[in-house]
Fold this sequence. Notes:
Elements: E1 6-10, E2 16-17, E3 33-37, E4 70-71, H1 76-82, E5 86-87, E6 91-96, H2 102-113, E7 119-123, H3 128-138, E8 145-149, H4 153-163, E9 167-171, H5 188-205, E10 209-214, E11 233-238, E12 245-253, E13 261-267, E14 270-273, H6 277-282, E15 292-299, E16 302-314, E17 322-325, H7 329-343, E18 350-356, H8 368-380, E19 388-390, E20 393-394, E21 400-401, H9 406-415, E22 420-424, H10 425-430, E23 439-443, H11 446-453
Parallel strand pairs: 6-10, 6-11, 7-8, 7-9, 9-10, 17-18, 19-22, 22-23
Antiparallel strand pairs: 1-2, 1-3, 4-5, 11-12, 12-13, 13-14, 15-16, 16-18, 20-21
Helix pairs in contact: 4-5, 8-11
The structure holds thymidine-5'-diphosphate and magnesium ion.
The site of magnesium ion (MG) has 4 residues, from helix 2.
Amino acid sequence: ASKAKNIYICSECGFESPKWYGKCPGCGQWNTLTEEIQAAPSKFSAPVRNAENRAKAVAINEISTDEEIRYHTGFSELDRVLGGGIVKGSLTIISGDPGIGKSTILLQICEYLGRSLKILYVSGEESGRQIKLRAARLGVHSENLYILTETDIQAVIEHIRTEKPDIVMIDSIQTMNYTELSSSPGSVTQVRECTNAIMHVAKSFEIPAILVGHVNKDGAIAGPKVLEHIVDAVLYFEGDRQMTYRILRAVKNRFGSTNEIGVFDMGENGLQQVDNPSMAMLSGRPVHVSGTCVTCVMEGTRPILAEIQGLATTSGFGNPRRMATGFDYNRMNLLLAVLEKRAGFYFSNLDTYVNVVGGLRLDEPAVDLAVAMALISSLKDVPIKEDALVFGEIGLAGELRMTSHVQARISEAQRLGFRRCILPANCLKKRPVSDCEIELIGVNTVREAFEALA
Ligand code: TYD
Ligand code: MG
């Protein structure tokens, strides 16, 4: 018999190599390469094709552009992130840390989906009894919901072929196992083959499938990144587990934008969508305290107000500590350098921390000014006026740069009762803002901005 060939595969990015590395040459992560037995060519990913079922080229004018069929989930926040609902025949992954609420959201949408669709919920993680108890607590009683506790992917596929449900959920893809492969469940090879198998039935029967994918924390299981190119949409469920807000975000979506987010609140009866995220993000905001500043970010088409907190304190010894939560660490360091060099605010021997409240992760440049204001406010120990908000990008020369969606941001601030808005002067020059009861203060430098706020 020929000897099986072993290869090393990165569980983070799927990089393959005949030899082992401590640091993956593909993605730069440490200790993610694990040994796997090279897979035989997949049965599912390369189905046998004969002359009849071979695809033919079609004239572009003859291709129908009818809207895809979409199923609503009962959560408009989830529908929004999906681009308008679950597309028939699509393959979606919901990913996130353990305990964030992946199983909960899938079970919850079964009640609404089950009104018109037959649902197959495959669980490799929990027993039927556990799922039943949870469903009862979540108010899910649909007669169209079928639970299959199974980890053998071929059995699952067979079940889908014979029962023909309208939608399939797999919780989780890492527990699924293709018995003909010798590698263990959760390995890159297994996870890929199982996903390919699901994709094949999803596409051929036009049954949409939603997979739960665990985030790979220690390299022990293959993360959703190795599946990103196979599936149609990848959603991440984020948020601080200690806090109740959950943010759903698409990092890939063949059927919609990847900018939209959905906001949920985890309570005793499962997840509830948050219809007014700005209000939620600002609830519990401290008043008359230095080191906090409100900004308005655009998440897709929707403006959301967010509170940024900054803290600058004397460093114990050695290198000062820097930490950013919900904001890019390197961007924070860059802003600190700009504040020091261009505006004369010295942070270099201070410990500095930045935190975005509520579990949001902000990567829009317009957040810069609020981060700078929160830090300077802490540095000077001067609170920022509580009825004021700021937005604007900071350039390397310390200049404040033009920001998009000025009108939408201001309207949202006004809706939540803010009285003044500090923004780059350029924003006002280009196009006057209409219908505005808020005082708009255009500023040209970081220092001017702080003076207007303090
Ligand atoms: P779960 O959906 O099981 O997480 P995942 O599938 O992403 O691992 O979420 C479970 C967490 O949510 C758990 O810590 C308990 C909490 N939870 C609630 O607070 N309320 C509820 O109604 C449910 C079902 C779970
Ligand atoms: Mg789960």
